[in-house]
Write a structure and sequence with these properties.
Blueprint: H1 3-10, H2 28-41, H3 47-57, H4 70-80, E1 83-87, E2 91-95, E3 97-99, E4 105-107, H5 108-117, H6 174-183, E5 198-200, E6 209-211, H7 222-237, H8 245-253, H9 263-270, H10 275-290, H11 301-320, E7 325-326, E8 347-354, H12 365-382, E9 392-394, E10 400-402, E11 420-425, H13 436-452, E12 456-464, H14 476-482
Parallel strand pairs: 7-10, 8-11, 8-12, 9-11
Antiparallel strand pairs: 1-2, 2-6, 3-4, 5-6, 9-10
Helix pairs in contact: 2-4, 2-8, 3-5, 5-7, 6-10, 6-11, 7-9, 10-11
Amino acid sequence: MAGWYIICFLMLPWCLSAAPHHSHVINMKTFLGLVQKLEANVPGSSARDLAQHLLSAITPPFCSLQFFSDELAALTRVLLTHKVQGSEDMGWHEQGVVLAPDGSTVALIPLLGAMIRGWKTDCDWKHAECSHKNLEHETQGAEGKHPCPQNSTSSDQQRPSFATGSDSIHPTSLAILLGMGFADPEVSLETPLDVTDGCWDSISAPKYFQLQGAPSRNGMTMAYVNGALDGTLLGLMMTNETQNMSSLIQSYYWGKPTMSSYRRQNFQALLEEGQLEEEIHRGIDCYRKYAASCGLHHITDNLLNTTAAAAAREFEERYLECPAVIPRCMWEAKPYKGTPTPLQTPLANIYIHHTYEPSKPCASFQDCAADMRSMQRFHQQDRGWDDIGYSFVAGSDGYLYEGRGWHWVGAHTKGHNFIGYGVSFIGNFMSSVPESRIMNLVKDRFLKCAVRSGYISSNYTLQGHRQVGITSCPGDALYQEITSWDHFKET
């Protein structure tokens, strides 16, 4: 999949580009429909075979195009051509990503690549040429000759293209992407890993994905990492050579429960101690040996060791061990009324709530997002507040939802809003508690990540809402549960 020339391009300055123009709805359902049509065109193809066909169809010399109608070929290019473009003035957008049913965004190139090869480094680079001196942002790639995979009679002459795919070309692995992000001589190893996320123009009919900021660390985005993790987990689900891709996608993204919501935990569970650092080390070492012409500066063995360790630590601590948070724009929040008041972080207090109404825990992105909108309407219209009161809200779909967030004073715990964050669980928990994995998402991941990120002091105090106000919140059962949590303090 031409991982070595993807990395070369990602190290180039970003190019300004207008928003893409197409009529397609860009979500996982659209990709599933494409897969199902291709499965009908190539009966009996396994998930692995179809992934290879998709990738080789968008990689020069477009070896699998004989399986595609003009309509399917055009849709494949829209869905799989991955680009990150923009400027500080005009903003940044990402193509080649789709909105998943769980509310996350997934890049399809790393998903397909990891389904075939996994997330680790394959050091068998037989064609390690790279030249990015004269690339244009519309072509985004490297020139060279590589043979087509099987079932192709196309010419093997490559045209410049950033799209990736040919099985004869080494893929971009997550290990290499992380390694090269930290091996970038222009970024200090001490700079925290910031995986850029974004929002869609529409949740019901998404067509354009706007990033929330400039990509850092070699262009790493949340969608790209999500794709690499999902592809790895989907690859492990391929139990036999005849299993088709559409059934895998349906069970992973539409299953009950949805597996994609827990991609971080499930991927982390695969790792053995020290394995991530070892693979990143190997990836950088392969890259410096076989693709030195791609712009990697000289790196000593000692620096290689330090770089691999820093990359593994940052990725685990700031991505894998932190829960995903659905941003306001993704649950379609209304604007804040007036001007928000900034918090002075780190804060020393956490206040646990339940929503009471909605009383039923939400189990899907669609339901949780609707609950967030409902609560915001109630808080803004009925109570006259500037915004939804909570800082963060935990759904039962495996995600936290951004309320007022890390930086703005909330309206969750009267008299204490300036000194603490309010975290609420959606549901009425007077007689029952949230699922253990939802509680652990807050207790073991969210709070620890907040301390590590500097939003909460390391000696913070955790209390239930009822301890500082006249209320039954967060419910009898949930309150009893949090009395056993670290940092809980009796009134």
